[in-house]
Structure formats: C-alpha cells, structure tokens
Amino acid sequence: MIDAVRTIVECRPRFGHPRVYNELVTKGWAVGRERVHRLWKQEGMQVPRRQRKRKRLRGSGGSHNSCVRHKPLQRNHVWGYDFVTERTEDGRQLKLLVVLDEFTRECLAIEVARSFSANDVKLVLQYLFAVRGAPEHIRSDNGPEFVAKDIQRWLGQAEVGALYIEKASPWENGYVESFNGKLRDQLLNGELFLSLAEARYVIDEWRLDYNHRRPHSSLNWQTPADYAAGLKHADGVFPSAQQADPPVGATPLPPAQPASTPPILYNNWNKDPGGSPSSVADTFSHRLKHRFLSIDAHHRSTFTIFPVPALHGYSEVFNSSMTRDPV
C-alpha cells in the first residue's frame, strides 16, 4: 500500500492525506483513514506550506540553440567553446580557451594566454579544423570574442553554424560548463601557477589525462578517446588524418614563404628583450612535441599523421601567443 500512496503523491504532490485516502478507496483499497494518516506521517509525506517556484524552460528546453533543443547527434556535429579565467602567483590574469566535442566529450584544446582577441580564437579554430575537420555547428555564449564580425564571417566561410545561447543563460551551454566545473575542481583549485609556461604545460597534461585515462560517467565509464575510437562510421567517426581531405570551407592558409624571408618562428622573437631565435625555436619545438607526440595508443589510432597545413596553422597560433606574452 505504501507503493500505491507514493505513486499518488508523485502524481499529485500537493495532495494531503485525506485526498490520498479517497484516491486509495476509489482504486479499491480496503483501508481506514487513520492508517493512511499514520503511514503518511511515518513516510514523511507531509505537504510543505511553502514551495519554491520553478522556472520552466521556454518551449521544450530553452532557446533554439541550447544544448537541450539542439543536441549533438554524432562526432563533429556540435562543438562548444568557452573561456575560463585563472591567475598566476603574481596576480596576473590567465585566460583559458576551452574547445569541446559535445558528442564524444573530448577536450580538443585548452589554449592558455594572458588575453585573447577574436583573431586569436580564429587561429585556434583554424588549427583544430585542419587537424580534425570542421564541425557542423559550434556553440558559445555571447562573449565579444565569439560574436565578433570577423569570427562570424570566417565561420560562415567555413560553413560552420554558430549557435549563440541566450544571454545570462550559461546552462544552455551545458556540456562546456560541466567540463569547466571539472577543470576547476580537479585542477585549477589545487594548483598555484608561477608562470604562463608552467600553466600551459600542466593544463595540457591534465587535458591529455582527461581524454585518455579518466573514465566518463556519461560514456558508460569509458574515456572520451576510447569512446571516440569505438564509434562506427554511421555514428560520425572520421577517417585518420593521413586520409582526411582539407577542412570544408576553411579559410585557405597563406602560401609558403620564400627562402629569402626569415622563418616564421623568428618573426616576433625580438619583441622579447630576453629572448633569442634559438630560445623561441626551442620553446616552439617543445610545445609542438608535447602537443603532437605526447599521446598514447588510443590517440594514435585516431590521428596517425598530421598534415603540413595543420602544423603551419599551429605555428601561427604560437607566434600570436608569443606576441601577447613571451614564454
């Protein structure tokens, strides 16, 4: 009988014990009013005098671009990106650009810098499009770096639909917000970064661990890399990079520089008074090796060989970060 009472309460949460008693009698239960009242109090089913108002999502789940109404259906269907802020020991700001594949939960990039412009965001996306292919949609909030006309124009040329959530509604970008919470709880809250270079290294190590070693509850306790590697072609898996075509609609990269011009890695080294061409090249080599070679067997099964345009795009991102804040 208790199960029957609970069923009625779930359907009619504002019913008191007299109404529940009448419902039981109507359904054929031979029971007294006093017994229902005793069980009612014993199970703690009293109706509270006050109840919190709940705000229902508009339509069937927020705005049209929310993660409830526009769900990812396959790999590279919907990406999400957002910013996370942190500070180094000296109090200076760190800004983290997080890019996530919402279907596989893979963290595609966490770019760390002191600040980002719309052009910096575009360079990061250009690198990811070259390595992984362009998604169908990319979801974000209404931050100035994301709604900039330059970004919107470039995404349009790349045939990528921009999904902007409602203002002051971060829950509509739920996949990225959930990831940001894990990033802050499991890493940022327990680390004190002494420099930008240290933050980049530690955060990228955590990203690799998240993708390849940390089981994810939403993926049946598989890691995002294992889940992505197990997808069939019908589920949206893409071929390895050595067989991939150039990203659809992506802005073409500039032509190769003639031999007479200085290498692209050295363009900005003189802006760092303590820097030198060799130190900048060594830093780039370390970051490039760390990004492309610090991967396990699961990662190699997906990204076998990276195309030359992808490496060239990454050098642009590196030069841009060197201009903002030398490593």
Give the strand content.
5-15%
Contiguous runs where pLDDT drops below 50 for at least 5 residues? 234-327
Give the helix proportion (percent range).
Answer: 40-55%
- CATH class annotation of the largest domain: Alpha Beta
What count of domains describes the coordinates?
A: 2
Report the order of strands and helices. HHHEEEHEHHEHHHHHH
Principal-axes geometry comes out as elongated
Query: How many E-type strands?
Result: 5
Rounded to an integer, what's the Rg over CA atoms? 26 Å
First CA to last CA: what distance?
Answer: 69 Å
CATH topology value of the largest domain: Nucleotidyltransferase, domain 5
Q: CATH-wise, what's the superfamily of the largest domain?
A: Ribonuclease H-like superfamily/Ribonuclease H
**Averaging pLDDT over every residue, what do you get?**
75
The CATH architecture term of the largest domain is: 2-Layer Sandwich
